[in-house]
Design goal:
single chain, alpha+beta, Ribosomal Protein S8, Chain: A, domain 1, Dna Ligase, domain 1, 2 domains, five-stranded antiparallel β-sheet, three-stranded antiparallel β-sheet, 3 helices, 8 strands
């Protein structure tokens, strides 16, 4: 099975696992996914991730975060830029997600970061997804 959009696959797996209140979810590993998961962890949306080196390919085990009453930390996660329609944003046009309550995750010349970080670093980039 070829995968045309591995990032959309990551987001869908997270969404499905959260819906079922799973403690963790496994996703095929890639450097881009690790970078996205680092941002999600920094922002408090997940409890962490680990690389599971097993055959036939490495996987990422993502620990999902819930509140004490089992409410997920991620209420909404959506892909913005898609392979068929890339979405780029200049530094001054980086969107505020949910009036600043959510985060935009961008890939920039300085790496994958939140919209706020990109604004601070004075760089624009491809808007990968929104999370809140």
């Amino acid at each position: 099975m070829s995968m045309s959009d591995p990032i959309a696959d990551l987001l869908t797996r997270l969404r499905n696992a959260i819906e079922r209140r799973y403690a963790y979810v496994l996703v095929p590993a890639s450097n881009m996914k690790v970078a996205i998961l680092q941002v999600l962890e920094q922002e408090g949306y997940i409890d962490g991730y680990a690389v599971v080196e097993n055959a036939p390919r490495p996987m990422l085990r993502v620990r999902l975060r819930y509140s004490e009453n089992r409410e997920p930390a991620i209420n909404h996660i959506e892909r913005v830029s898609k392979p068929g329609r890339r979405v780029y944003s200049k530094q001054r046009d980086i969107p505020l997600v949910l009036s600043g309550m959510g985060v935009a995750i961008l890939t920039t010349p300085k790496g994958v970061m939140t919209g706020r970080q990109a604004h601070r670093e004075n760089v624009g980039g491809e808007v990968l997804c929104y999370v809140w």
